[in-house]
Amino acid sequence: MSITSAFFDIDGTLTSFTAHEVPASTLRALKALRESGVRIFICTGRSPSQAIKVLDTIPVAFDGYVTYNGQYCLLDEHLDEQGTAQSAGEGIRRSRVIAEHPLDREDLALILDWLAAHPTVVSNFGERDYVYFNQVDEQMRATWRSLGKTAPKVYVDSPRRALDHPTYQVSPYITAEEEAALVATLPHVTGVRWHPAFTDLIPADGGKPAGMRVFLDHFGLDMADAIAFGDGGNDITMIEAAGIGVAMGNATENVKAAADHVTDDVDHDGIANALRRFGAL
Question: Which residue stretches, if any, does this entry annotate as coiled coil (predicted)?
Fold first, then answer.
């Protein structure tokens, strides 16, 4: 197959939980894809503002940015033929929203009721330009420490904001069993989990493949000619949807089982090696 588009998760895929930076081999690979005419996209569970912490370190612009696990998609309309930009961070800052899918307010009200009945549960809430927690505890701080220098700034605010502001993702720190019980009460919500400590609650008809299709349709490309890279549970549907789904060597076992190919880990040239394996470099 001829690869015409490539989608990249951020945490555990572009960056590792050890070095907390994008490897030089990955930066070279992104530049080579851009120069060869392959459309490249971010596909992350992070918000745009949280993604910038990593994107500012990548000296290559992306064609588009799938954020909030597919719920908020931004297109960079200012790329010239060479994709000129000082960084991917500059690219996302100058992009415009071409698709958005916030959580249903009925579901948000039910989530707030559940949190009120479980007052010790920490949860993250994601709006367009603002991400906040209802409270913080040591478990939440530990997950933020694991992100190292890519960890976004922490804000604490009232979760009641969610009833008056479009909210694209809610991420409570709950077990898989608690997640299943909560989601069963929410008519239009599903959970996608990339970390054992918390889940991302998003619209049931959303997810990373929905964001991928926004850009594939925009550019007239086929999913069969896409390659996607991921490492966590929220990447499984993306990996399954793409013509070539690649699991990083550091991916969880369920992600590896869903992939067409398992490459090396992020710190050992996993992305570059897979792209060479499939003839894209």
Answer: none
Give the integer Cα–Cα distance in Å for 44 and 129.
16
Task: Tell me how far CA of residue 48 lies from CA of 24, 72, 130, 174, in angstroms.
Answer: 23, 8, 9, 24
Domain span holding position 262: 5-101+206-277
How many domains does the chain divide into?
2
Q: Which residues contact 141 (CB under 8 A, 6 or more apart)?
A: none
* Final residue belonging to a domain, choices 147, 181, 203: 203
Alpha carbon distance 191, 141 (integer Å):
22
Q: Last residue of a domain, which of 203, 236, 259?
A: 203
User: 211 and 196 in one domain?
Assistant: no
| Shared-domain flag, residues 93 and 225 | yes
Question: Do residue 11 and residue 42 come from a single domain?
Answer: yes
Tens digit of each residue's pLDDT (9 = 90 or more) over 80-102: 655 567 789 999 999 999 999 99
Which pTM was predicted? 0.94
What distance in Å separates the CA atoms of residue 48 and residue 68, rounded to the nearest whole number? 8
| Residue spans of beta strands (DSSP E) within the chain | 5-8, 39-43, 64-67, 72-75, 96-100, 123-126, 131-133, 169-172, 189-195, 198-203, 226-230, 244-247, 261-262
- Look up residue 247 and give its amino acid: A
Structure confidence by residue, pLDDT tens digits, 232-258: 999 999 999 999 999 999 999 999 999
Question: Distance between CA atoms of 159 and 179, rounded to whole angstroms?
Answer: 18
Name the nearest CA neighbour of 68 among 261, 254, 206. Answer: 206
Cα torsion 30, 150, 241, 213: sign: negative
